[in-house]
Specification:
With 315 residues, the chain is of the alpha+beta class. It is built from 10 helices and 10 strands. It folds into 2 domains: 131 residues, 60s Ribosomal Protein L30, Chain: A (2-Layer Sandwich); 150 residues, PurM-like C-terminal domain (Phosphoribosyl-aminoimidazole Synthetase, Chain A, domain 2, Alpha-Beta Complex). Strand 2, helix 3 and strand 3 form a beta-alpha-beta unit. Helix 2 packs parallel to helix 3 and helix 4 packs across helix 5. It starts with a helix and ends in a 17-residue tail after the last strand. The protein binds adenosine-5'-diphosphate and magnesium ion.
Length: 315
């Protein structure tokens, strides 16, 4: 099998919403008139973003999930993607399972793969994704306002616990907990429906890839505001919640959960609670945006909590 047969067999599917999909020098799409087009790229490198023994099916899922998560964080509807692969060898079983995981998630979101690039090299997976919002409605990082509630979807720290356990095994953590956390690490759920439903409701949003403190920090910096975060309110796995203080860094600064953090005015509380019910996705208030410029993490006695590490950095 050569490169072209590989593309034809594993990466060419009907692109229902494109004018022209895989197979020409460029794809053609026709964006919805008068909508804003969102464009984002995310790359996964072996050893840096995933363990070398992860299943190819899970990797296919995650490669797309992290990109869908960026669309979710903008409130955008994902439409099209291009997929670029550097593969160390032409392993049919591996490629077939990877593409199954990738396309299963793509179909769930009505997303079309319209092109890509395939080359030989150290295992690297890169997706560029395109999505749409009605004009001017995107959930940007620079629009948080003092007084906004800070919300978080789902629960945090699970993916980071799975990574930590893999690197430095801690025998006191039950296997069932590690299994749940590994599931979350390998199969993150991009909060696309949530993001879309937050248009007109939330002021700003970001997806949590590098940890709550670090990613909320990006909203604060871009919006020129600060925040109070209530440590005990941060939603996490029940086992972590019972051991909250010992795992404070994992919960507040652990990456890879791909939940959304968003800010919204007090007046949106009821609608957000309704949204959580409708989408079967827990949404928790974890703090408030303040005029001051710093971020303060406090316990229930309003005492500050200091962290030894406040988020993942790539270098
Ligand atoms: P070119 O030589 O013009 O760059 P390629 O041989 O790289 O063309 O790709 C041929 C077609 O296959 C193009 O339409 C390209 O977008 C598509 N393609 C290549 N690799 C992938 C991939 N991994 N997934 C989806 N489409 C791909
Ligand atoms: Mg090419």
């Amino acid at each position: 099998m050569n490169e072209f047969e590989l593309i034809q067999r594993y990466f060419t599917r009907h692109a229902a919403n494109a004018v022209l999909g895989v197979g020409d020098d460029a794809a053609i799409v026709r964006p919805t008139p008068h909508h804003d087009l969102h464009i984002s790229t995310d790359m996964l490198v072996q050893g840096q973003h995933f363990f070398s023994d992860v299943s190819p099916y899970a990797l296919g899922h995650k490669t797309l999930a992290v990109n869908l998560s960026d669309m979710a964080a903008m409130g955008a509807t994902p439409c099209w993607a291009v997929l670029s692969l550097a593969l160390p060898q032409l392993d049919k079983t591996w490629i077939s399972e990877f593409s199954e995981g990738f396309f299963k998630l793509a179909e769930e979101h009505g997303l079309s793969v319209i092109g890509g690039d395939t080359t030989c090299g150290p295992l690297t997976l890169s997706v560029t994704i395109f999505g749409e919002t009605p004009p001017g409605q995107a959930l940007r990082r620079d629009a948080a306002q003092a007084g906004d509630d800070i919300w978080v979807s789902g629960s945090l720290g699970l993916a980071a616990l799975a990574i930590q356990q893999r690197l430095h095994s801690n025998p006191s953590i039950p296997d069932s907990v590690i299994a749940e956390c590994t599931q979350k690490l390998e199969y993150p759920t991009p909060r696309v429906a949530l993001g879309k439903n937050l248009l007109g409701l939330a002021h700003s949003a970001i997806d949590i890839s590098d940890g709550l403190m670090a990613d909320l920090g990006h909203i604060l910096a871009r919006s020129n505001v600060g925040a109070d975060i209530w440590f005990e309110n941060i939603p996490t796995h029940p086992w972590l919640a019972n051991n909250r203080r010992a795992f404070a860094e994992i919960i507040t600064a652990g990456g890879d959960d791909y939940e959304l953090c968003f800010t919204a005015p007090y007046s949106a509380r009821e609608k957000i609670a309704k949204l959580a019910e409708d989408l079967c996705c827990s949404l928790t208030r974890v703090g408030r945006i303040e005029h001051k410029k710093n971020i303060r993490l406090t316990d229930k006695f309003e005492q500050p909590i200091t962290l030894s590490n406040s988020g993942y950095t790539h270098f």
